[in-house]
Write a structure and sequence with these properties.
Elements lengths: L1 H19 L13 H12 L9 H5 L11 E3 L5 E3 L1
Antiparallel strand pairs: 1-2
Length: 82
C-alpha cells in the first residue's frame, strides 16, 4: 500500500512538472520556466525609441498583486511606488 501511494505521488509530481512547464500567455510567452519569464519580461521592457511598453503583456508576466514600478523616497524617509 505504501509503495502504491509513493508511485502515485511521484506520478502526480511528474505530471504537475510537465503541466507547469507548458504554461503560455495570450501572447505566446512561456511562463512555465524562470528563463521563459525573464525572456518575455526583457522583451516587454526593451522597446525601441518611439515604441510603447505593452502593459497588457507585462501584466500577464507577474502576480496581479505585484508592485511593479520605480520606488522613490521623500525627505521623511517614506517610500512609494511610482
Amino acid at each position: 500500500m505504501k509503495l502504491c501511494a509513493f508511485f502515485l505521488l511521484v506520478a502526480i509530481l511528474f505530471i504537475e512538472t510537465i503541466a507547469s512547464a507548458q504554461q503560455k500567455t495570450a501572447f505566446g510567452d512561456d511562463v512555465g520556466t524562470l528563463d521563459g519569464i525573464i525572456k518575455a519580461y526583457y522583451e516587454v521592457v526593451s522597446v525601441k525609441l518611439g515604441e510603447k511598453i505593452n502593459f497588457q503583456r507585462d501584466s500577464l508576466l507577474h502576480s496581479p498583486t505585484a508592485l511593479i514600478g520605480l520606488p522613490s523616497g521623500n525627505k521623511d524617509g517614506k517610500f512609494k511606488m511610482n
